[in-house]
Amino acid sequence: MRVSFGDFDTKSLSVDFNTPSSCLVVDSKYQHDVTTFKFPYKLPQQSSMVVKTLLAMPRWLFLSSKRSCSRERQMHISSLQQIWFACHMRPTKLRIIDGSNFLTEECSRRFCGLSSSPLPAIRTFQETRIFSTNIVREEEEEKQSNRAAFRATPIIPSILAYIEKIGVGMRPKRPKHAKRKPRADFGGKSETLDEIAEADFFAENETQHRLQRLNKDRDSSANVGKGPKGTKKSVTNNQEGSKKRGAFWLPPPPFSSSLRIDNDSLNDSLKGRRVIRRPVKLLGKAGSLHHVLPRESKGLPEVAIAGRSNVGKSTLLNALLYGNTDENLSPRKYQRGGTPDTTKLPKGIKAVTSSKPGQTKELTFYQLTADVMSEDDAHETIEEEGKMSLLLVDLPGYGFAFAKEERTIEWTNLMHHYLLERRSLKRILFLLDARHGFKKTDFDFLGDLQDGLMAKNNGKKRELPPIQIVLTKCDLVQQTDLARRVVIVKKQLSDFLIREPSSLPVMLVSARAGIGFNNVRRDTPMGGVLELQRELAALVPKPQTHGKKK
Ligand SMILES: Nc1nc2c(ncn2[C@@H]2O[C@H](COP(=O)(O)OP(=O)(O)OP(=O)(O)O)[C@@H](O)[C@H]2O)c(=O)[nH]1
Ligand SMILES: [Mg+2]
């Protein structure tokens, strides 16, 4: 009996399949090729050579796969299974194993009880089957113990309170007959300090605009607008206005489209200034080391969004740039989940997202710029005082992707080069699916980066930019589980990194369009995106303002 570790591509077909084997382990990254292109479509026209090799195929086929494989992928697998049965003289057992541990010599030991010595130990089919039953049991036990360990993780009250405050994650179900909590009154007293500040901001902002309009319409000498009486009345009206809007939120510059900075908590150098956002600019794309990356600039900090394929990188990028709204939602829903940001999207400037892993195949650079203008006392813009810019970089994913292997190698090399060499890179947002946390591929990726850094260092001290963990798809996880996940992820990261991990907080987001509002909490439309915007805005250098107004 022999074990073959097959790639299933044409080259290894000739190598592996010419020697009859009893077990074949297939790497999941080739499944796409196998099932879509090679077998189902080419088989009828194939020469007898392929049929011969198929007949010589093993009795056991191990297809590695994600547990939650997509329907499309399940169909591929089942079509392969049918062909397998059709072409095989003997019944073949097909098992789908978790994609994280395969194609290693270890795999042969674990699944078939074969040694990894040059010639695998001879075992009968029967023995292998018995062994594999044990393994199924072991796997099940391992899963259960993992689940138990997760449940046993303590929930830290401050983390849970933060999660509830920003409104991400699924809230615990209300018992059937329990009383519904009264809804927050947006115009009235808000729950947190931030919300009060935001409510005041909108109320005041609108008052000022209204007064400006009034002033223009009427005679400029009229006593309208600045009197305490007039202001009071307008504020009440505006509170009703913000009530109608359904929700309010205040993205920091440069994420906001038009903002007058009156708030004391913001940087002093911006106080009394107006920030006007320009349309997002696509600075460039690069898919391999042969392509030229956009030039680095001193005052232009960069933030890279990295993570496994399909973890939600591009969706998060769009949410950061444009808010997590969806124009396709019905007007009512749009209004409810909407944001004050009315930036019109220029064509081609939104990152393409897909449920199929491997959608983004190039590093894509999006530049966000906002002009800082000074204003006179009547709130009329006078002159430009500077710019605030940030570069957000959408990276392709690692792990399984629907793409040719050469292509994935190219983009992985480029990603490593970019992350290790780029000096203006100020932060790596390391995205993890909140349902799964760290997976083996994540550690592999981080490990490769650390190795690359050590090899490059040659005695000189250079470090990776701070890595900030962002848990995505939080809308699919219970809030208590999110709190546990934060604790586990933090510990895993500090255990893994050679250096001390940065003290940056773990961010929680739910970036899917329209989601943060309807599914999560009525008064927080952003599903954690706003918090991340605030975190990133702190990286942007404030312009040196030299206006008349100080
Ligand atoms: N429920 C939910 N789904 C999300 C969220 N973020 C992303 N998704 C979905 O996840 C899928 C993948 O999203 P992408 O943004 O394309 O993922 P990616 O990491 O850019 O993937 P690649 O470009 O292939 O590396 C899409 O179907 C999104 O709608 C989220 O916060 N909640
Ligand atoms: Mg993408």
UniProtKB/TrEMBL annotation:
GO-annotated molecular function: GTP binding; metal ion binding
Coiled coil: none
Biased composition (Basic and acidic residues): 211-220
Domain EngB-type G: 299-542
Compositionally biased residues, Basic residues: 171-182
Domain of life, per lineage: Eukaryota
Record's keyword annotation contains Metal-binding: yes
Record's keyword terms, sorted: GTP-binding, Magnesium, Metal-binding, Nucleotide-binding
Disordered: annotated segments: 171-190, 211-254
SUPFAM superfamilies linked: P-loop containing nucleoside triphosphate hydrolases (SSF52540)
Cited InterPro entries: G_ENGB_dom, GTP-bd, P-loop_NTPase
Protein name: EngB-type G domain-containing protein
Biological source species: Cyclostephanos tholiformis
